[in-house]
């Protein structure tokens, strides 16, 4: 709605009244503050105490590395990029639950790493961890 501040019909003052907007936002804020604790359906349970047990035996993961020159290594054995898929298929056939740790040098060409990752996928390996350093 526009109001005129003077007798001049040509001057129209157009301002947006934000008070209703602020009122609605405050009501929504209060509604969220009230409903968030209700959404947490956690039930407090006193868990029984038991003797500690040994963790399940974890198999050692196979390490696949790509160095700065683009050379590919599987557990410190150098392979050609073309041979990676064949070697990974053999390792996967021997152990279907094979875990793989992929690490590459930060300066290596992305194309080499992409080829290695495609070979991992084609070999059928689903347990892959990409290793990085923390900042």
List the helices and strands and how they pair.
Elements (H helix, E strand, L loop, with lengths): L18 H21 L22 E5 L5 E3 L2 E3 L4 H11 L4 E6 L5 H13 L4 E4 L5
Parallel strand pairs: 1-4, 4-5
Antiparallel strand pairs: 1-2, 2-3
Helix pairs in contact: 2-3
Keywords: Cell inner membrane, Cell membrane, Membrane, Protein transport, Transmembrane, Transmembrane helix, Transport
InterPro entries: ExbD
Function: Involved in the TonB-dependent energy-dependent transport of various receptor-bound substrates.
What name does CATH use for the topology of the domain at 62-130?
Nucleotidyltransferase, domain 5
Task: Give a quick account of the main beta sheet: strands, pairing sense, barrel closure.
Answer: 5 strands, mixed
Kindly state the number of beta strands.
Answer: 5
What percent of residues adopt helix (DSSP H or I)? 25-40%
Supply the number of helical segments.
Answer: 3
Shape designation: flat
| CATH level-two architecture of the domain at 62-130 | 2-Layer Sandwich
> Uncertain spans, ≥5 residues at pLDDT below 50?
none
| N→C terminal distance | 56 Å
Order of strands, main sheet, comes to 3-2-1-4-5
Strand portion: 15-25%
Membrane topology: Single-pass type II membrane protein
Subcellular location: Cell inner membrane; Cell membrane
Function: Involved in the TonB-dependent energy-dependent transport of various receptor-bound substrates.
Transmembrane segments: 20-39
Description:
The chain has 135 residues and is α/β, with parallel strands linked by helices. It has a domain at 62-130: Nucleotidyltransferase, domain 5 (2-Layer Sandwich), CATH 3.30.420.270. Helix content is 33%, strand content 16%. It has 3 helices and 5 strands; from the N terminus they run H-E-E-E-H-E-H-E. A 5-stranded mixed β-sheet has the order 3-2-1-4-5, covered by helices on one side. Helix 3 links the parallel strand 4 and strand 5 (127-130). Helix 2 (84-94) runs parallel beside helix 3 (110-122). It is flat. The model has no long low-confidence stretch (mean pLDDT 81).
